Amino acid sequence: MDKYSIRDDESGLVIGYCEDIIGFLDYYASREKHFHEITLSGLRFDEAFVQHCKSARLKIFGMHFSILGQGGEPMGSYYFTPEKPISFYNDITSQEKITMSVSGALHGGPSSEALEIWKQWIIAKPVMKNIWASLSKEQRLGWLEVVRIHSQVAQKKVIEDQHYYLDMAYVTDRISFYCALGEAMNGRADITGLT
Predict the structure, then answer these.
(1) 160-194: per-residue pLDDT in tens?
(2) How far apart, in whole angstroms, are the C-alpha atoms of residue 6 and residue 67?
(3) Which of 36, 143, 159, 192 has its CA 20 to 30 A from that of 133?
(4) Which helix (H) or strand (E) holds 107?
C-alpha cells in the first residue's frame, strides 16, 4: 500500500507514489546535517508524469511529500529541496516499482510528536471533538502542527453561519486555547479531516 505521494513543486504534476520514505520520519534525528538523505522505497511513477517526461525532459528543483490516508487521499505535505536538481528522462515507466535515494533539505520536517499524530490519523481520523485535551503539552504542539499541515489540503466548507461556539472546557493554556479555537472556527471537518 502506498503511504506517500510525491508532487513536483513547479509543474504540480504528481511524480509518483511510494510505499515508504526512509529517513523522512526520522528527520529530526539527523537535522544537524545541512542535507538529509532520504530513500523513496517502492516508488511507482504516475502515468501522467511518465507521459510528460516522454515529451520533455523534466528537472525537479523542489517536491512535496504528501502523507496519504487509508483511502489514498493526501492528508498533509512537507516540502523537500534536492541538493541537486533531479532530471527525469523518457526512459522511466509506471509499470515497475523502484528504490531511489536523494539528498536534500526537508523544510519544516515533522516533529516526533506530529509523527505520532500522523500515524494515528492514517489509521483512523478523529471522530470526536476535543481529542487533543488528553494530550501532553508537547503532544498538543504536535497536534497543532498536524492540523496546520492538514488544513492546507483539506477542502474548505461553505460557512453559512458566522457564529462560533468556543468550547473552553479543556482550555488551560495558550496551546489548548488554539486547539479549541481551531475546532470552533474551522469545524472538525476542516480541522481534523472528518467528513
Answers:
(1) 556 778 889 999 999 999 888 877 776 553 343 33
(2) 9
(3) 159
(4) strand 98-107
